[in-house]
């Protein structure tokens, strides 16, 4: 049994999805989705313990050895991401029922859980597979289901947002496919480890450079790296709150994983740097993303859109850290992947509660909300402090390691950008805080649901606690991230 | 109880006090009792730690480790002890004064006022006890945030605007300059702990040292070295007890304390004086001393004049530290003490005048010394201490600073101190002159002394200003081991 754990990550949610369709019941749908996510989370944790010492797990599908068959490969990086994704899915779903019922019409609820499970299948599959073409397949599963998730709500504008995402997402996925195809043309293999070994012997190949270029642009689209981010604000703003929450926490993180995996494990850093100067390209777009995202976030009136632009800036931080191409830099990037997932989910869950209570996420209409929703607003402030990077919260750890990695690498000019964007984060969080605490309510809120069900606080408390826990105790995330960074580029002088 | 756990208790007492104030908020008398009890307890706890520190003990308390080399922890050493003593002694005095002031002026939101005050005191004690830069940074920021509601207490547009300046400057400087400096220091030294003799190795390149020095000087916006001083005059919209808190007890003192602490425990004065050819900080602080004095000279609003006087006095501390001579650094520490008592007296007096006579301008003070003799006498003592005339505490600290300046032959420093002494006299003595030697307008006969609690408070601090001149021994013997660790 334990030898099959790797494949269970994908198989469980994949099989559960049609079951939910057949049962056609929203309560059972929720229950199954939650239990499946939980089991994936537990499996991910077990896997992580198994490979923690560095004994990677290689699982061959159907017993067919690579390169003929497909291989699943679990190393520390894989386990790290698996835990993040399945953990987020579990703890978001636990408290999400009321909000989902509220924002999605009743006859579509079972479809929501189906799409959710498929999305989970895709995201976990991308991470766990050791086959480049398989990566593309799972990306498509994750993307198609996320288009459905975005457009499943009542808001008609979500259709347009989903369509826009579909166009950009498909272009991105096709580019990634082209890159994989070109690599196959050069090497004749799709297995990631084979690819790495064979590519090492291929020098000065124009095909390979083209593949890398296609890949970077494709992944830029999927991970919403500036200037390929334009689908993201709409998709996050108009989709149901829980969908925004889940996407914000998971999907871009998975594509950053793909970026790390391909650049470091397949193309190799030497090649990426020498042939295309990938690190400078990424660093410059990351810096622009940080400033642009923060500036846009300040201007927004819709809370969800504000958080979406903040995500663009935060993705910039991750890319910036990775583009330093040092052990400390990659570790900082991974730490931020982990911490930002938690922080952003907390913020989006607060917004989900606010929308449930007031029916709007327009900041101007939220005056005086602090008195009416003291718990949610209080937790919003904690998560807000965390995204700013205040000490004793998770965000501070991220920022500390990012700045330290930057200093160690000697990129002095980058530091002002980081600190100034922290100030901009203060501005956009303060904007909300001032409105909810320091303004008198001038008109009644458009209340749709007067009583807040307690279940809506469950997830919120879990994630807020995590925001603080990982600010005080960093052994787990920082420890693992540093091991992974060592694995990836430790050998490099 | 062991003295290490006392460190924790000292920070918890004002916090628990804040909760108590919140619970008893509806009953003013009970609420004020809670404040005074908490203040008294804190005073007892802090002074119970004093004998140990005098005997050479350095109690430590570790909360947790964020990651290796980065703890949140307390460690008590002489300089922090001195600062904690000042803050804990002035909190009860300020509370007594506040009761008179807040009731005398029928201020609103008094519960909120006392809560924030208690949290600010807890942060101040946290700063004083910090064992490393990161702990200091955390409490530095909580101090900024907890004083924001105090600055905007009046709630009108002017107060909100000033609050924004206050928060904006203090947060911006600390996040843009102080935090990167801390991380940089960590990156060089792999620790941020305050260690006797400094943690930056002597091999550090001088341009790095200079950059870090400037980043900390300006990153600690609370020390108000120009041009990051704007928040201080802006914060003058706050009620007078808050100004007293800002100027004497907590905020600005936390700023200069942090600078002195970082200069002596992170940088090493010995290394700095060897490495730095030109110490810009000397010029920056000298400029601030003189420029702020000129502004104060022209200010007609009494509190504004006091605010600029504070800016000038703070830069004395920065200048004295930047001279890097042991004697001047000792003078810097003593100046924190002397200025605390002198300036709180002046603010208390200004608040009394406002409460009793509703006057805010210097030009309105003709003959007020006859109506409010105790207040104006205390004001005179405070002024003399600012100028540095014996028998006041200001003379002692200035004496050491001057001695330090002579020991390193810094003509700039000597000239600045002499000139600023003249300027200090130029903007304080006319007030005393007006109050006692000019005839009042005659129209107003109804002015009396301020309420008793206020008069008591300001008499006490004025008295302390004089006592510190005759008995500076305790402070000196406390600071002696600290001074030895410098050289």
Q: Biggest β-sheet of chain A: count, sense, barrel? A: 2 strands, antiparallel
Number of strands of chain B: 2
Structural class of chain A: mainly alpha
Helix content of chain B: over 70%
Number of DSSP helices of chain B? 20
- The N- and C-terminal alpha carbons of chain B lie at a distance of 35 Å
Oligomer classification: heterodimer
Describe the global form of chain B: globular
| Ends apart, CA distance between termini of chain A | 41 Å
Broad shape of chain A: globular
Kindly state the mean pLDDT of chain A as a whole number?
Answer: 88
Provide key terms for this protein.
heterodimer; A: mainly alpha; two-stranded antiparallel sheet; B: 487 residues; mainly alpha; 20 helices; 75% helix
Describe this structure in words.
The complex is a heterodimer of chains A (493) and B (487). With 493 residues, chain A is an all-alpha fold. Chain A has a domain at 277-493. Helix content of chain A is 77%, strand content 2%. The two termini of chain A are 41 Å apart. The mean pLDDT of chain A is 88. Chain B has a domain at 278-487. Helices cover 75% and strands 3% of the residues of chain B. Chain B has 20 helices and two strands. A two-stranded antiparallel ribbon of chain B has the order 1-2. The two termini of chain B are 35 Å apart.
SSE inventory with pairings:
The complex is a heterodimer of chains A (493) and B (487).
Chain A: H1 5-23, H2 26-51, E1 57-60, E2 71-74, H3 76-94, H4 97-103, H5 109-128, H6 132-151, H7 157-187, H8 192-201, H9 206-222, H10 231-238, H11 241-267, H12 269-276, H13 278-299, H14 303-323, H15 327-358, H16 369-372, H17 374-388, H18 394-409, H19 414-438, H20 455-472, H21 475-489
Antiparallel strand pairs in A: 1-2
Helix pairs in contact in A: 1-2, 1-5, 2-3, 2-5, 3-5, 3-11, 3-15, 3-20, 5-6, 6-7, 6-11, 7-9, 7-10, 8-11, 9-11, 10-11, 10-14, 11-12, 11-14, 11-15, 12-13, 13-14, 13-19, 14-15, 14-19, 15-17, 15-18, 15-20, 15-21, 17-19, 17-20, 18-20
Chain B: H1 3-23, H2 28-54, E1 60-67, E2 70-75, H3 78-104, H4 110-129, H5 133-151, H6 157-189, H7 206-219, H8 231-234, H9 240-249, H10 251-265, H11 269-275, H12 280-298, H13 302-322, H14 326-357, H15 368-371, H16 373-387, H17 393-407, H18 411-437, H19 452-470, H20 473-486
């Amino acid at each position: 049994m334990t030898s099959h754990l790797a494949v269970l990550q994908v198989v469980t949610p994949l099989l559960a999805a049609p079951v939910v369709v057949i049962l056609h019941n929203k309560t059972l749908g929720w229950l199954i989705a939650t239990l499946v996510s939980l089991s994936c989370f537990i499996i991910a944790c077990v896997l992580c313990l198994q490979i923690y010492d560095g004994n990677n797990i290689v699982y061959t599908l159907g017993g067919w050895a690579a390169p003929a068959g497909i291989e699943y490969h679990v190393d520390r990086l894989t386990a790290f991401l698996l835990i993040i994704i399945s953990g987020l899915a579990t703890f978001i779903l636990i408290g999400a029922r009321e909000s989902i019922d509220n924002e999605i019409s009743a006859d579509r609820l079972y479809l929501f859980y189906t799409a959710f499970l498929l999305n989970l299948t895709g995201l976990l599959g991308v991470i766990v597979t050791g086959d480049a073409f398989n990566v593309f397949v799972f990306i498509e599963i994750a993307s198609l289901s996320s288009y459905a998730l975005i457009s499943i709500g009542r808001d008609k504008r979500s259709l347009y947002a989903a369509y826009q995402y579909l166009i950009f997402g498909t272009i991105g996925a096709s580019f990634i496919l082209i890159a994989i195809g070109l690599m196959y043309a050069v090497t004749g293999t799709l297995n990631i480890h084979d690819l790495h070994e064979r590519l090492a012997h291929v020098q000065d190949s124009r095909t390979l450079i083209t593949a890398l270029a296609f890949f970077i642009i494709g992944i830029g689209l999927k991970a919403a790296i500036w200037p390929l981010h334009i689908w993201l604000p709409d998709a996050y703003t108009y989709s149901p709150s829980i969908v925004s929450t889940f996407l914000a926490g998971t999907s871009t993180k998975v594509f950053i994983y793909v970026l790390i995996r391909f650049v470091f494990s397949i193309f190799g850093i030497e090649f990426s740097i020498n042939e295309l100067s990938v690190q400078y390209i990424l660093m410059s777009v990351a810096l622009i993303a940080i400033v642009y995202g923060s500036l846009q976030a300040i201007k927004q009136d819709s809370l969800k859109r504000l958080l979406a632009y903040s995500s663009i800036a935060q993705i910039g931080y991750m890319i910036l850290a990775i583009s330093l191409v040092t052990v400390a830099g990659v570790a900082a990037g991974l730490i931020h992947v982990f911490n930002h997932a938690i922080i952003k989910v907390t913020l989006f869950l607060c917004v989900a509660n606010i929308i449930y209570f007031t029916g709007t996420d327009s900041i101007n209409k939220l005056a005086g909300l602090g008195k009416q929703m003291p718990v949610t607003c209080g937790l919003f402030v904690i998560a807000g402090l965390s995204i700013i990077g205040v000490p004793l919260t998770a965000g501070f750890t991220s920022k500390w390691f990012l700045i330290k990695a930057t200093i160690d690498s000697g990129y002095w000019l980058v530091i002002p950008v980081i600190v100034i964007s922290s100030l901009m984060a203060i501005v956009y969080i303060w904007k909300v805080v001032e409105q909810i605490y320091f303004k008198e309510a001038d008109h009644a809120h458009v209340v749709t649901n007067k009583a807040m069900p307690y279940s809506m606080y469950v997830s919120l408390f879990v994630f807020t606690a995590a925001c603080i826990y990982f600010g005080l105790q960093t052994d787990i995330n920082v420890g693992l991230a540093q091991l992974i960074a060592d694995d990836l580029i430790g050998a490099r002088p | 109880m062991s003295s290490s756990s006392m460190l924790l208790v000292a920070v918890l007492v004002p916090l628990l006090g804040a909760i108590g104030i919140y619970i008893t908020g509806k009953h003013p008398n009970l609420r004020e009792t809670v404040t005074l009890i908490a203040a008294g307890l804190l005073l007892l706890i802090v002074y119970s730690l004093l004998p140990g520190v005098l005997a050479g003990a350095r109690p430590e308390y570790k909360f947790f480790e964020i990651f290796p080399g980065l703890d949140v922890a307390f460690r008590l050493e002489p300089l922090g002890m001195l600062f904690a003593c000042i803050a804990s002694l002035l909190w009860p005095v300020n509370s007594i004064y506040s009761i008179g002031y807040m009731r005398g002026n029928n201020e609103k939101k008094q519960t909120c006022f006392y809560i924030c005050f208690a949290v600010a005191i807890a942060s101040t004690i946290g700063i004083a006890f910090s064992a490393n830069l990161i702990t200091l940074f955390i409490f530095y920021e909580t101090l900024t945030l907890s004083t924001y509601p105090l600055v905007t207490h009046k709630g009108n547009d002017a107060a909100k605007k000033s609050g924004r300046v206050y928060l904006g400057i203090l947060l911006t400087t600390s996040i843009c300059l102080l935090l990167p400096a801390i991380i940089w220091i960590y990156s060089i030294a792999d620790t941020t702990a305050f260690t006797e003799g400094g943690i930056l190795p002597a091999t550090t390149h001088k341009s790095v040292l200079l950059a870090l020095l400037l980043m900390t000087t300006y990153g600690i916006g609370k020390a108000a070295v120009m041009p990051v001083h704007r928040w201080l005059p802006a914060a003058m919209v706050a009620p007078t007890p808050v100004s007293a808190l800002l100027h004497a007890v907590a905020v600005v003192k936390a700023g200069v304390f942090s600078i002195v602490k970082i200069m002596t425990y992170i940088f090493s004065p010995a290394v700095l004086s060897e490495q730095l050819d030109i110490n810009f900080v000397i010029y920056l602080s000298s400029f601030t001393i003189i420029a702020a004095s000129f502004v104060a000279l022209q200010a007609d609003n009494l509190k504004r004049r006091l605010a600029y006087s504070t800016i000038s006095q703070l830069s004395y501390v920065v200048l004295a530290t930047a001279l890097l001579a042991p004697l001047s650094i000792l003078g810097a520490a003593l100046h924190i003490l002397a200025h605390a008592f002198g300036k709180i007296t002046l603010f208390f007096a200004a608040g009394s005048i406002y409460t009793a006579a509703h006057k805010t301008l210097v030009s309105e003070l003709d003959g007020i010394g006859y109506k409010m003799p105790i207040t104006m006498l205390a004001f005179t003592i405070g002024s003399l201490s600012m100028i540095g005339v014996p028998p006041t505490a200001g003379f002692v600290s200035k004496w050491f600073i001057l001695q330090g300046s002579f020991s390193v032959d810094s003509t700039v420093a000597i000239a600045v101190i002499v000139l600023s002494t003249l300027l200090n006299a130029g903007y304080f003595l006319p007030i005393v002159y007006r109050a006692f030697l000019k005839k009042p307008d005659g129209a107003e006969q109804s002015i009396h002394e301020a309420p008793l609690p206020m008069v008591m408070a300001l008499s006490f601090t004025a008295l302390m200003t004089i006592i510190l001149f005759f008995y500076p021994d305790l402070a000196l013997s406390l600071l002696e081991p600290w001074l030895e660790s410098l050289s």
